[in-house]
Amino acid sequence: MIAPTNGDIRAMERLHVKAWPAFETANIGGWLWRCSGGGSQRANSVSTVDFTGDDPDAALDEAKARYRAKGVRSQFHTFGLTQPLGLPERLRARGYREGEATLTLFKSPEPGVVPADIEQTDAPTPDWRAVYLGAITESRRAVNARILDTIPGPRAFFACRPDGRVISTALSVTGFGAAVVECVATAVEARRQGGAEAVLRALEGWAHAQGVAAIGLQVVATNTPALALYQRLGFVQGAANRFWVRD
């Protein structure tokens, strides 16, 4: 696809927020304060897509106070179009350290033939859960398992199930004229067997049928194997993102 516009980037960031809902939220001058416990960074950080307030320092103080009241560290999530401008510098000056960096990738969805070993469902099956939850860190499993029960629609869960067993998973949620890719995982013993590519191609076909203009995903910037797969499938970079942590 052609390079995504600023509007595309903002829409995709809003969709990422929608697709992975936190258990507790609060509006702080347009920012979305999120808290869920466990190790999920997105569900435990402040989303900075919008800012409608007139005092960023007061908003930073409120966010920090809310996290302190929960007994957890304060976290923010920024991206290239974070509001207000200069927020990363404000965070750094307040003692926040740069955490994990991710990239937002985009692609225009195309129709395709769904492989026979792909299973599409409206909710995660036990086998789907086992593969996805088994692929993430232990600190994230309990919370992410609960978040899976709250995923909003329109949505679709995809599993690659050759020989009757799930080897790869993916999830897609639509909104804001786009579709987002989540929960791409492959069982350790089934890696390099094409399962991830199969579920992504099936997901792309589903997204095309939903009439969206773009599909997007966020990947850890240092995850070279995943980046190679996504680039091979035609995804292009649209934004760089960063988590900020204050212990």
Structure description:
The protein is α+β, with helices and mostly antiparallel strands and 247 residues long. The protein has 2 domains: 6-104, no CATH class; 109-212, Gcn5-related N-acetyltransferase (GNAT) (Aminopeptidase, 3-Layer(aba) Sandwich), CATH 3.40.630.30. The protein contains 7 helices and 11 strands. The protein is globular.
- Strand fraction band? 25-35%
Rg measurement, Å:
18 Å
* Sheet with most strands: 9 strands, mixed
Named CATH architecture of the largest domain: 3-Layer(aba) Sandwich
Range of helix content: 25-40%
The CATH class of the largest domain, by name, is: Alpha Beta
Task: Name some characteristics of this structure.
nine-stranded mixed sheet, two-stranded antiparallel ribbon
Give a quick summary of the entry.
This protein is α+β, with helices and mostly antiparallel strands and 247 residues long.
Fold topology:
Layout: H1 6-19, E1 24-28, E2 31-35, E3 46-47, H2 56-70, E4 74-79, H3 87-93, E5 97-107, E6 118-121, H4 126-135, H5 138-147, E7 155-160, E8 168-175, E9 178-186, H6 195-209, E10 214-220, H7 224-232, E11 236-246
Parallel strand pairs: 3-4, 9-10
Antiparallel strand pairs: 1-2, 4-11, 5-10, 5-11, 6-7, 7-8, 8-9
